[in-house]
Amino acid sequence: MEIDLIKQLGYKAFDSRLKRISDHIAHNVKKLYKEIDLDVEPNWYLIFMLLKEHDHLSIANIAERIGYAHTSVFITVTKMSERGYVRLSTDKTDKRKQLVSLTTKATKSLPMLEQIWASCEAAILQILEDDLGIFSYLDKVDSNLEKTSFHQRFKQEYLKRTSAK
């Protein structure tokens, strides 16, 4: 059996381990969507959830609320718009802002999507064996990154090591 390098590296490959888990889940969600002939993508979930609660939000506001880059949200929203799930409009008070809102197609799809998402949530709970302790650790990671960015920490460590030579 091949050695799993990411597991072998442990904390040194922390980001790779999280990405691999995320990619695995997203790939399988996408696979189910395709099997049931659903034309949405897994990464649309957060935007659907936000817009379900708000009539409309700017792209910048969505990005801020989910902690993603503006460009990433813009690309996702554009795909959602192309498939008819969101409507883009210009803010009347600030022409630079694009407002995003759910379309009729999206609101009609929400009950089915919510059933699918509930199934996904149940599957995640099975994987976690109903132990949500991992989220306390992730909250600590988020909090520590808010206090001091990874860039600052990384740079500081790098400078310590290079100036010691």
Shape: globular
State the end-to-end CA separation. Answer: 40 Å
Mean pLDDT: 95
Radius of gyration: 20 Å
| Main β sheet profile | 3 strands, antiparallel
CATH class of the largest domain: Mainly Alpha
Question: Please, how many helices?
Answer: 8
Question: What percent of residues are in strands?
Answer: 5-15%
Give the count of structural domains. 2
Using DSSP, what is the number of strands? Answer: 3
Low-confidence stretches: none
CATH superfamily of the largest domain: Winged helix-like DNA-binding domain superfamily/Winged helix DNA-binding domain
Helical content (DSSP H or I, runs of 4+): 55-70%
What is the element layout, followed by pairings?
Blueprint: H1 5-9, H2 14-35, H3 45-53, E1 57-58, H4 59-66, H5 70-82, E2 86-90, E3 98-102, H6 104-127, H7 134-147, H8 150-163
Antiparallel strand pairs: 1-3, 2-3
Helix pairs in contact: 4-5
Describe this structure in words.
By secondary structure, the chain is mainly α. It has two domains: 123 residues, Orthogonal Bundle (Arc Repressor Mutant, subunit A), CATH 1.10.10; 34 residues, no CATH class. Helix content is 66%, strand content 7%. The protein has eight helices and three strands. A three-stranded antiparallel sheet has the order 1-3-2. The chain starts with a helix and ends with a helix. Keywords: DNA-binding, Transcription, Transcription regulation. Pfam families: MarR_2. This is MarR family transcriptional regulator.
